[in-house]
Amino acid sequence: MAKSDFKFDDKEWRAFLGSILNKAKDMTRILSVAYGTAGIADIKRHFEDEQGPTAPWKPRKQATDERYLLIALGLYKAPKGTTKGQYNPTNKILQMTGMLKRSFLPSNWRRKSATAIEVFSNDTKSGAHDRGNKEKNIPARPFMWISGKGKDVMAQIILDKLISA
Predict the structure, then answer these.
(1) What pLDDT is recorded for position 13?
(2) Closest of 153, 112, 145 to residue 126, by C-alpha
(3) Which residue, 48, 43, 30, is CA-closest to 116?
(4) What is the pLDDT of residues 101-121, one digit of tens each?
(5) DSSP readout, 73-129?
(6) Where are the domains of the chain?
């Protein structure tokens, strides 16, 4: 019977793992790429689905739909910065003008730490719509969240960036 020797040298593995650890020291760029692609797409999908993390968004009040119809017909003045053509009671919730949905941009993030970023909408009304505003009688319709599928896609992007040369 022949004798076999096997030698395992872990130098290459140590170098590979070292490169991953080095990249992971500052995750800002990698996190911004994951947000700028999969994160934004996931948030925009919430607008299409009219869905929060646990339930569908509350429907608009009948009075709101009636106001939008009056604006569309030119019988009521459109709010500043909008036109009557943007107001249609059949538009999806939070999508009368499309400005809120379009306010999510790959550049709308800021570094919080080496391992965290904060993302935001540049629409001044986004917080009131996302969390609600009792004073203004605006119900919460959460859109600033990432679904399980979105998290999986973002995790794959992060992993790919960490292990790529």
Answers:
(1) 87
(2) 145
(3) 30
(4) 999 999 999 999 999 999 999
(5) TTSSPPPTT--GGG--TTSPTT-SSSHHHHT--TT-EEEEETTEEEE--S-TTHHHH
(6) 27-57+96-165, 58-92
